[in-house]
């Protein structure tokens, strides 16, 4: 047996796992309680607007409900994730189901935010040309497509543990899970491409709104929209960039590019921490829901605008 293999076998992650048990309790419990309450209230609030102001604010309400449902699904998976992460020999079906819920909810949120950003950019840039594309039926179709895509994309999860005899949920993934043919499509289509779309659409939307500063009377509303877009982009990057960087580093470890024990331990800690804190995003989204609902209520109390103005206002209140 080679010295390098002996070194790998002697590399223990017990200290990392013990530390993460404490961190998960400190982060996941308040995240679960707040996320469950706030996302349920968000769904109720946007459902009310959907009924009362159909179809004027249908696009915003449907997208927000879809995002809140994905966040709620992630919240509901957290207690099982905490429990199963510390239990060995979990029934394969139950472990796979919890892992599916977790990753489906995470990437469902990513794709929903991506389409929201694209929808808003197109409506701000071409308000009259794309108004017919924002019908409730089409928005429902987009949201339905997102659900189909993320569930179809979860198929590799069923082979996460392969023929590994001793495993723990969200740990001990099989070598096939970290192969290039699985990893790179996940990174490119699950994060890099959506982040590029969100970054481009958010930056262009801000530039367009700033350029119209002297051409409109409602600069205060547009300024608030700019801050919402910028904050939403920042929350997205902070929530999802570290975890996908952690995935990349773990890919290097599992494929033999990084072999030093201390580096592997640090990467394992970084990946688990990034996964833990990325879950807080389901609570951070609630701040966006609050400001969107506030703007919609203010708009309802205002004089009835034209259809073109409604299209622009609806997109301006949509999350980036």
What is the end-to-end distance? 54 Å
Q: What share of residues are in beta strands?
A: under 5%
Reading the helices and strands in chain order gives HHHHHHHHHH
Catalogue the unreliable spans. 1-8, 304-308
Number of helices: 10
Which structural class matches the secondary elements? mainly alpha
Q: Find the count of extended strands (DSSP E, 2+ residues).
A: 0
At the first level of CATH, the class is Mainly Alpha
Into how many domains do the coordinates divide?
1
Per the principal axes of the C-alpha atoms, what is the gross shape? elongated
Keywords: Cell membrane, G-protein coupled receptor, Glycoprotein, Membrane, Receptor, Transducer, Transmembrane, Transmembrane helix
Subcellular location: Cell membrane
Protein name: G protein-coupled receptor 55
Organism: Neovison vison (American mink)
